[in-house]
Amino acid sequence: MNAALNTGTAQRAASYYSASLNDQTQYPTLQGTVEVDVAIIGGGFTGVASAVELAERGLKVAIVETNRIGWGASGRNGGQVTGSLSGDEAMRKQMRARLGDDVDDFIWHLRFRGHDIIQQRVARYGIDCDLKRGHLHAAMKPSHMAELEGFATEAMLRGMGDQVELLDREGVRRHLDSPLYLGALKNQRNLHLHPLNLCLGEARAAHGLGALIFENSQVLEIIHGPRPAVVTAQGRIEAKQVMLAGDVYHKLEPGQLKGKIFPAMGGIVTTAPLGDLARQLNPHDLAVYDCRFVLDYYRMTADGRLLFGGGANYSGRDSRDIAGELRPCIERTFPALKGVPIEFQWSCAMGIVVNRIPQLGKLSENVWYCQGYSGHGIATSHIMGEIMAEAITGTLEQFDTFAGCSHIRVPMGDLLGNPLLAAGMWYYQMLEKLR
Ligand SMILES: Cc1cc2nc3c(=O)[nH]c(=O)nc-3n(C[C@H](O)[C@H](O)[C@H](O)COP(=O)(O)OP(=O)(O)OC[C@H]3O[C@@H](n4cnc5c(N)ncnc54)[C@H](O)[C@@H]3O)c2cc1C
After folding, report:
1. In the chain, is it the N or the C terminus that has fewer CB atoms within a 10 Å radius of its CB?
2. Which residues of 111-143 are buried (b: 16+ CB within 10 A; e: fewer)?
3. Domains of the chain (ranges, CATH numbers)
């Protein structure tokens, strides 16, 4: 191995998270040739969580990241770790053929497996990421309430009665100083956290276990064969196995992957620190999202700012005025915040899959991929990291359950993918008005 320790020019994406980092480690650019057991392309949660799992199992791993660790959606998201799985109903339908009546247990287990992995990892490696418990899923109309009641009933039946509580309008007002909601499901099992600090902490943990990490190193090509390799402008990693974890940001393997995943842009802002007002607005420090298809989500940061995200833009392009778009939503949610200064705003692409089922598969005998959590990826990426590590080390059961799902591949995806998604979302927004 002769990888030099040069660092590169890739920058962190500007956000509240990158302004409140607690780890400034800069990993080197890949130079020369390196040999490992598993080369992972992409340093978001999927790549980093898989690296920890593999390194814990004793494999020599390398992560290769175009930008910086956590540069993509993993370091710029809402920080809410909830039991919502995008695509759960589609999964249930498709997986029933393989799992039979066990499908309901399998999906329930998936809802909260990621929470356990994250909490154990934070504890084991001492990761400082403002991890907190508590979430409200808030209803804006009676049909939303009916959905929440359905979830609460299942949660009770599955032994979570001490962790979930249905709140009526007055109950919500005791938790949020907002006039918007007629009820909510409070869930003490859900979490919220500083995602970039979690991702960097996990990268540090993987590094401590012997993983190599390269930033500023875009993989340009995957070489398939009995001994696959990934190639960057200045280096090459030869591996026994390769895992592609670039989500919506990579353009690799178009022959097999183009048209399977599409970008939706999400915008987030944070206000100036709110001081005592933060506790008045949200006294139990809960993360919140509402029940709409295109929803608002928010929580307080460790330094008492409101971090608020909402909407999604399916054009695939950045919004020009995120603060302008989100300010009316903030003021509608919390009238006390009229005119509040907004100090950070950013947007980021998330990978959307047509049927919303995470896409796991093989590109050749020893080249794997895992992508597409459709906006609910913090917990899911950690579950997938575990499933991918199991698969790469020879236990294929859960991987096969996902890999056996069929996915729509949009022909001329570059051209048609985002207009189709936009039409789909318009349809769902119309349904939202009717339900
Ligand atoms: C605005 C927003 C809010 C969100 N809020 C939440 C939330 O509150 N809760 C939740 O659960 N989920 C949320 N999500 C979704 C979640 O963030 C993602 O599903 C998850 O982070 C995806 O992780 P990933 O590692 O697969 O992809 P990413 O984090 O996007 O990482 C992919 C990485 O691969 C790298 N890469 C790509 N191509 C190459 C290449 N050729 N060579 C080397 N590296 C490459 C990229 O630079 C990138 O760093 C949100 C997403 C967005 C955008």
Report:
1. N
2. bbbbbebbeebbeeeebebbbbbbbbbbbbeee
3. 7-131+193-260+354-404 (3.50.50.60), 132-192+262-352+413-434 (3.30.9.10)
